[in-house]
Amino acid sequence: MSGPRVTDIPRARSESFLRRARSFASLMEAALERGNSEGAALAGVHCVISACDALTVHSLGLRSKGQDHREAVRLLSRLSIPASLLTQVRGVLGLKTLIEYDDRSLSAQEVRTLCDRARRILATVESQLAPRK
């Protein structure tokens, strides 16, 4: 049941969002290797957004389409996931506007923290979506 900032997506499409998250993770790592901190941070944010979409599509058949991403966090909070994952997602998404539109650049430590969080979030989502044996 979609609302104004949520859309119904067939659960089988969760894999395409996971592929996108992995692609952004690869871009993040490549940008880090080249010393492109802003590119790495932005790719990390988009990795997290796509990973969250993969999880909510897989679990709920829903995806956030709001621009501020608060709806994505609300959808995630409906799932049985660790509170620490929600905290990490909020932390990463909270930096998106700063990275894209503010005149202040992230510090090297902020970029490292964001990228570490993006890796952990993606790994958690991958483990949640892995077929159970």
Structure, described:
- With 133 residues, the chain is mostly helical.
- The protein has one domain: Up-down Bundle (Four Helix Bundle (Hemerythrin (Met), subunit A)), CATH 1.20.120.330.
- It is 68% helix and 5% strand.
- It is built from six helices and two strands.
- The protein has helices spanning 14-33, 37-60, 70-77, 83-93, 96-101, 108-129, and strands at residues 6-8, 62-64.
- A two-stranded antiparallel ribbon has the order 1-2.
- α1 packs antiparallel against α2 (37-60), α1 (14-33) runs antiparallel to α6 and α2 packs across α3.
- The longest helix has 24 residues, at 37-60.
- The radius of gyration is 14 Å and the shape is globular.
- The N and C termini lie far apart (30 Å).
- The relative contact order is 0.18.
- The mean pLDDT is 92.
> Element order, helices and strands?
EHHEHHHH
Number of strand elements:
2
Order of strands side by side in the largest beta sheet? 1-2
Helix content estimate: 55-70%
Q: Which regions contain 5 or more consecutive residues with pLDDT less than 50?
A: none
Which characteristics define this entry?
Four Helix Bundle (Hemerythrin (Met), subunit A), two-stranded antiparallel sheet, 133 residues, 6 helices, mainly alpha, 2 strands
Topology readout:
Layout: E1 6-8, H1 14-33, H2 37-60, E2 62-64, H3 70-77, H4 83-93, H5 96-101, H6 108-129
Antiparallel strand pairs: 1-2
